[in-house]
Design brief:
The complex is a heterodimer of chains A (424) and B (275).
Chain A: E1 3-11, H1 17-23, H2 27-38, E2 43-51, E3 54-62, H3 67-76, H4 83-86, E4 91-94, H5 96-106, H6 118-132, H7 138-157, H8 167-178, E5 186-190, H9 194-205, E6 210-215, H10 218-228, E7 231-234, H11 238-241, E8 247-250, H12 260-269, E9 275-279, E10 296-300, H13 301-367, H14 372-400, H15 406-417
Parallel strand pairs in A: 5-6, 5-8, 6-7, 8-9, 9-10
Antiparallel strand pairs in A: 1-3, 1-4, 2-3
Helix pairs in contact in A: 5-7, 5-13, 6-7, 7-13, 8-9, 13-14, 13-15
Chain B: H1 2-26, H2 34-57, H3 65-87, H4 93-109, H5 125-159, H6 163-168, H7 172-205, H8 213-235, H9 239-262
The chains are: A alpha/beta (424), B mainly alpha (275).
Chain lengths: 424, 275
């Protein structure tokens, strides 16, 4: 039976997070799971991919593999999830589809956030782990290496990863459109929300020099200030520090803390150096009319969300270019994969006919006496007969490579010419 | 030959303007490098046209409306080239290229060939005054272009309609800084232009100031730009207001130029195309 490629699993498109988290394979269990997978009849090579968005098995098989067994060995194992619960969410891709699926996953075209970079790293780690346990062979080694290079190509030749899609990185991007650079700037953080902290960290790593942390309870502000090498101050005294701040991040639960008039005054004191207000709090910390003050730029969560949405849209548009690249690479991989079986069959066919030709030729030439020149002529004649006979079958086989006719033609050839399995 | 080069330059400017438009407005990636390249190329060919005339007549002549427009357009493109090299702000070309195209096209349409300079106007001050005055105007034109980009970018930021336009334009601070740099160069050039003009006038008529419209406009401009710089230093005038004031200054400059050259006003700065 022909060798085939198979992907079996669940992902964020097919299964809810409750199921995904129950089926997630912890890293330490991966090795054991691979051993069990290779025991499934027909599975020759296998890699298990388990991230928070997907649990998938990629396998190279010979012959049919029982779906039920895959379900148990690849997905369920000892998770306690019943087959009835998991089965409807599982998908299976075969042949070219499986290759395309893997390339799309690696290129982050199949990710929840298109273009996110983590998936490639996770895939590399888990492939190396499988490789280390000798569960991969010629086919999967080549398939995974190819998928990494496809991912690299998609990433560098399209813009799928060029636009920010998180609140903190969008805030940094916007700051870069107001200020020439963030080096030497001062950021003022109001309140201690998690999102505010993430944003503050990102601003610091983008070059912001001083961080002021204002909070109602000074102790908690001190804690974060110490950690981020900033200065803590009580929220009541925040207004006095406003003119120092180039960027003001609001994530306090205290409601409206900064009014437009205060910003006008601060700007005057700053000689109208621009100020960027990032309001991450709900209810909002900054008076919305601050945005009307000359030199002040205000973005609240909704404004940031709409930028994120737009960037996601742009990533999706870029992704269509990525799909085209994936398609080309699937073709080239598939050609190689098909050749794995096609070429040995054609070689075996030629060899078996050559054996017949030479045996028959010898037998005949032994019986009749011919001069050297005539012997050569007879030899030449049998050669051209053979190559004319084989020409059509060979070219039909080559043309069928990659099409759905191929498997049928290959097994027909083997049967008609008694070739057996060329690999054995 | 001079006209052929001029037509070629106008074409380069036009294609450059279209490429800039395609890149900035519709984010056509392939057009990104075409705009700057053709604007630079246009500058070179345009330079050949001016060089041809200079060799032909033996001196830097900017006599007549068409030549003035052509010389001005060439200097504006040149000022952009310098700014682009120094601040890598090639996107300003999106405003500079259509401006250069419009000016050069007008120069092509109004082209008259070499005209002799009236003998009494000749003198050592002529090329100095003309070059300085035009260079100052070109730098102000660049400041105008920077201000336009500033207002577009500021509008994008304020309206939160952000989008991809935002990504292709430089930061407000950088635009503001380059605007100020342009004013800081343009103002002394304007001052020197006025002074050399006065010296030239004094040399042939004995009168430093004759009160013709061009002189009055120049003084108005000088006061405006002086005020702009003064407010910048003392009150930190910057950003949107500074950009609007810069654009106002350039509008006055253009009006003055057109009024003096097109309307039938007598004076040494133009006989008046309509007269």
């Amino acid at each position: 039976m022909a060798r085939g490629l198979l992907v079996y699993g669940i992902n964020h498109h097919s299964a809810p997070v409750e199921l995904r988290e129950r089926l997630n394979v912890p890293e330490e269990a991966l090795a054991q799971r691979l051993v069990e997978l290779l025991e499934v009849p027909g599975v020759e090579e296998a890699v298990l991919l388990s991230t928070c968005n997907r649990v998938e098995m990629i396998a190279c098989c010979s012959g049919d593999v029982s779906r039920g067994e895959l379900l148990h060995k690849a997905l369920l194992a000892d998770s306690g999830v019943t087959p009835e619960l998991a089965e409807p969410h599982a998908y299976q891709h075969m042949g070219r589809e499986a290759v395309r699926h893997l390339f799309r996953v690696a290129s982050s075209l199949d990710s929840l956030v298109v273009g996110e970079p983590q998936i490639l790293g996770q895939m590399k780690d888990q492939y190396l782990l499988s490789h280390g346990h000798s569960s991969t062979g010629v086919v999967l080694n080549r398939l995974f290496h190819k998928s990494f290079s496809v991912a690299k190509r998609v990433r560098s030749e399209t813009g799928i990863a060029s636009k920010s899609v998180s609140v903190a990185s969008v805030a940094v991007d916007l700051a870069g459109k107001i200020f020439e650079n963030l080096e030497g700037r001062t950021a003022l953080l109001l309140g201690l929300g998690e999102i505010g902290e993430v944003t503050a960290r990102q601003l610091l790593s983008a070059g912001v020099e001083r961080l002021l942390v204002a909070n109602r309870t000074l102790e908690t502000a001190l804690e974060l200030a110490r950690e981020l090498d900033g200065t803590a101050l009580p929220l009541e005294r925040m207004a006095g520090y406003l003119p120092l701040a180039d960027l003001v991040v609001g994530c306090s639960g205290g409601g409206q803390l900064v009014m437009a008039a205060e910003v006008s005054a601060a700007l005057k004191e700053r000689r109208h150096q621009p100020m960027f207000f990032i309001d991450l709090a709900v209810p909002r910390n900054f008076d919305p009319t601050i945005n009307n003050v000359d030199g002040a730029y205000l973005y609240d969560v909704d404004d940031l969300a709409s930028v994120i949405n737009e960037n996601k849209g742009s990533r999706r548009r870029e992704a269509t270019e990525g799909e085209v690249m994936v398609e080309q690479e699937v073709d080239s991989f598939w050609q190689w994969f098909e050749g794995l079986e096609l070429v040995p069959t054609i070689v075996a066919l030629r060899e078996s006919v050559e054996v017949i030709r030479t045996t028959e030729l010898m037998r005949t030439l032994d019986k009749i006496s011919l001069d050297e020149e005539s012997r050569e002529r007879v030899d030449q004649m049998t050669r051209s007969m053979m190559s004319k006979l084989l020409h059509l079958p060979t070219s039909v086989l080559k043309e069928a490579g990659g099409s759905n006719e191929e498997t049928g033609l290959l097994s027909a050839t083997k049967r008609l010419f008694g070739l057996g399995d060329p690999e054995k | 030959m001079e006209l052929a080069f001029l037509q070629l330059a106008a074409t380069a400017y036009l294609v450059s303007a279209l490429a800039f438009g395609a890149h900035v407005l519709w984010s056509v990636k392939r057009a990104a490098s075409v705009g700057p390249l053709l604007l630079g190329l246009g500058f070179l060919v345009h330079g050949l046209s001016i060089a041809w005339r200079t060799v032909d007549s033996g001196f830097v002549t900017v006599v007549g409306f068409a030549e003035g427009l052509s010389f001005f357009a060439w200097l504006v493109a040149g000022a952009w080239l310098v700014a682009q090299r120094r601040y890598s702000l090639s996107v300003i070309g999106a405003v500079v290229s259509p401006l250069a195209f419009a000016l050069t096209l007008a120069a092509v349409i109004l082209f008259t060939g070499t005209r002799a300079v009236p003998a009494e106007l000749m003198g050592p001050w002529l090329p100095v005054h003309v070059s300085l005055a035009f260079l100052g105007n070109a730098v102000f034109a660049l400041a105008f272009a920077v201000s336009v980009i500033y207002l577009v970018q500021e509008n994008a930021l304020k309206s939160h309609s952000a989008g991809s336009l935002l990504n292709r334009l430089p930061s407000l601070e950088q635009l503001d800084r380059v605007n100020f740099t342009c004013l800081a160069w343009g103002f002394p050039l304007l001052t020197l232009g006025i002074m050399t003009g006065g010296l030239w006038a004094a040399a042939y008529s004995g009168q430093f100031w004759s009160g013709e419209p061009r002189e009055i406009f120049s003084i108005v401009l000088w006061v405006l730009y002086a005020g702009l710089l003064q407010l910048r230093f003392t009150r930190g005038l910057r950003g949107r207001r500074a950009s609007l004031a810069t654009m106002l200054g350039f509008a006055i400059l253009v009006l003055a130029y057109l009024a003096v050259n097109v309307l039938p006003v007598a004076g040494r700065h133009g006989g008046g195309v309509l007269s």
